[in-house]
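ok so I'm stuck.
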Amino acid sequence: MKNSTKWIATVATAAAIFFSVNVKAQTTDKSAWRLGFGVEGGIPTGALHTDPAYSKFELGGTARLQYGLDKNLALTLTSGYYNFFATQAAKDVGGTSFGVVPVKLGIKGFVTNNIYLGAEAGAGFETKFDKNTKLILSPGIGWANQSWDIGARYENFSGQSDNYGIVALRLAYGFSL
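replied:
not stuck anymore, here's the structure
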């Protein structure tokens, strides 16, 4: 049941992006390519957050390459590193902080001059323990101008019988290539 809810949420986000009626231009740059570097912070959910809580905070950095299909729609490629900090309770039983390297493809659609809806999907490569690969699904919303991008999203990591997620904020600086 949880997977069907996630699937419906992802489809609804994608539909909202594609069928937005009141879409305006984000930028007047002549270059379709943009590159942004961001700092991310988040609160873990799911298996990482249940009692006893394994992690209560995620911090990471990402790079996002964006290609504008037109003035209000862009494709994205995002990668970086997320660190999930272990709680003291987790450390007491031998747990340590661990990381995930995300690689995501996405779409970003502007619904007003600076407000966008986005959706990403990809793989997350865990860097410790069993080094599992997780399916990542991530709907989001944000504000962007010529240089800055501030976004909020829910990111779900699923697979290998332990699922978790993050509610995260991203602050990024970007520029045209």
